[in-house]
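lol forgot to send this yesterday, sorry. struct tokens for the thing we talked abt
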């Protein structure tokens, strides 16, 4: 049988996992990524899970090296810096580049096409065609839409499904550990630090540096700070100094007064050591938080994967793990079933089940963020940390359920 060919739209983590796992299952793959530059510069911290580590190992990436920085406890501090709640729990916190770099380097350049934007997909009973913005058309047996939360592929097949704003944003800051004071390093770098000012939640932790270094003193420190704002305020901070309103303003275009205001709020609301780090960040940036669940993932020979299929609020911290497991399910189903349409029907059914779970679990946890009646749960340190502490186990069970489904199919 001739080798099947998959056209993967999106060369971020979901697309790269799909490329590696489909290749291992006997497919030829071509990855098309809109951004022309290397993506490793997208710096931000990521929580890891055993299933993610297993997926990296399956792709053949060295997992002897730690995937990230080990932390030993969850500690909630009040705005004076006093510890008010503590749970002993080990976690490994990683960074986007530490996953992206080896995944990208392990894929031949000949199969990765940067600076290429999909305009639309076409599909029929025998295959799919990618139509790119420059008019080029490429055909294959399968087109995988791994093109993220604002997926062009999903918008074409499910135009009525739109990301729903959750009512809050995540401000993010990443600072070299070397720029932190010795006291802040000592107080913050062995743990996940939580802080819950009124209706808000900040979580911060050490992560590998952009070059992958995980040695103390050479790592980065990452802050994620959830803050409720309404849609009018969101539109305002997404507007640059020239008056142009972006769907998601690029960090260098965030207006200086917006950055100055959030830094002043950090001083007023966060524990002093965390505020010092936030204020030291050259350019904190924000991401609006959305919920999105696709009611269908397969359209003929087109399949949605990763954030293109489901966008969960980041609280479960398993979006990348889910994208990797989506890719594994697609590859395993296509290897196990000679009939590709039957494999895709299986993928559609199974991944909706897992996607719906992560969206619901994250929405439930995020319900405590918001002011007054907008928060449907009280945001107490004990509640929020207890929830965060159970998540690694929930994700482990969720991933194990998927593995057993595939192997017992
Ligand atoms: C604040 C925050 C914290 C998070 N923390 C975690 C965490 O701790 N752990 C975790 O696992 N996950 C976390 N996530 C989620 C995680 O970032 C996503 O789930 C994950 O990046 C999804 O990967 P993806 O490849 O599906 O999509 P993306 O990373 O969005 O990639 C989509 C790619 O497609 C490309 N593209 C888009 N349109 C086109 C087109 N038309 N043609 C060609 N290319 C196109 C884009 O340029 C992009 O590179 C977090 C998310 C946020 C917002």
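and heres what i got for the seq, position by position
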């Amino acid at each position: 049988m001739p080798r099947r060919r998959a056209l993967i739209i999106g060369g971020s983590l979901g697309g790269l996992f799909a490329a590696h796992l489909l290749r291992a299952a006997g497919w030829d793959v071509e990855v098309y990524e809109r951004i022309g530059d290397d993506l490793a510069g997208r710096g931000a911290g990521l929580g890891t899970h055993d299933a993610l580590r297993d997926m990296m190992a399956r792709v053949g990436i060295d997992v002897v090296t730690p995937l990230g920085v080990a932390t030993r406890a969850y500690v909630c501090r009040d705005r004076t810096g006093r510890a008010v709640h503590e749970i002993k729990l080990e976690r490994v916190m990683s960074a986007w580049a530490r996953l992206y770099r080896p995944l990208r380097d392990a894929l031949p350049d000949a199969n990765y096409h940067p600076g290429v934007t999909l305009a639309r997909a076409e599909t029929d009973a025998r295959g799919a065609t990618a139509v790119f913005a420059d008019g080029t058309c490429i055909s294959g047996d399968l087109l995988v839409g791994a093109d993220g939360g604002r997926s062009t592929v999903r918008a074409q097949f499910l135009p009525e499904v739109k990301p729903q704003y959750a009512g809050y944003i995540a401000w993010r800051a990443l600072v070299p550990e070397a720029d932190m004071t010795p006291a802040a390093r000592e107080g913050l770098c062995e743990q996940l630090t939580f802080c819950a000012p009124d209706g808000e939640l900040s979580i911060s932790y050490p992560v590998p540096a952009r070059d992958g270094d995980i040695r103390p003193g050479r790592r980065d420190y990452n802050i994620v700070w959830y803050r409720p704002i309404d849609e009018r305020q969101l539109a305002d901070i997404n507007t640059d100094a020239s008056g142009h309103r972006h769907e998601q303003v690029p960090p260098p275009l965030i207006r200086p007064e917006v950055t100055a205001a959030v830094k002043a709020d950090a001083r007023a609301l966060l524990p002093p050591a965390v505020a010092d780090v936030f204020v030291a960040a050259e350019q904190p940036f924000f991401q609006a938080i959305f919920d999105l669940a696709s009611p269908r993932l397969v359209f003929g020979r087109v399949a949605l994967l990763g954030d293109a299929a489901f966008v969960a609020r980041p609280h479960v911290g398993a979006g990348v793990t889910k994208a990797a497991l989506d890719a594994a399910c697609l590859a395993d189903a296509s290897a196990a079933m000679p009939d590709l349409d039957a494999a895709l029907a299986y993928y559609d059914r199974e991944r909706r089940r897992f996607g719906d779970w992560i969206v619901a679990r994250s929405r439930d946890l995020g319900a405590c963020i918001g002011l007054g009646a907008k928060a449907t749960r009280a945001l107490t340190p004990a509640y929020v940390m207890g929830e965060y502490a159970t998540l690694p186990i929930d994700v482990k069970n969720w991933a194990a359920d998927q593995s057993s489904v595939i192997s017992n199919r």
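The first strand starts at residue 5 and ends at 9. anyway ping me if u want another try
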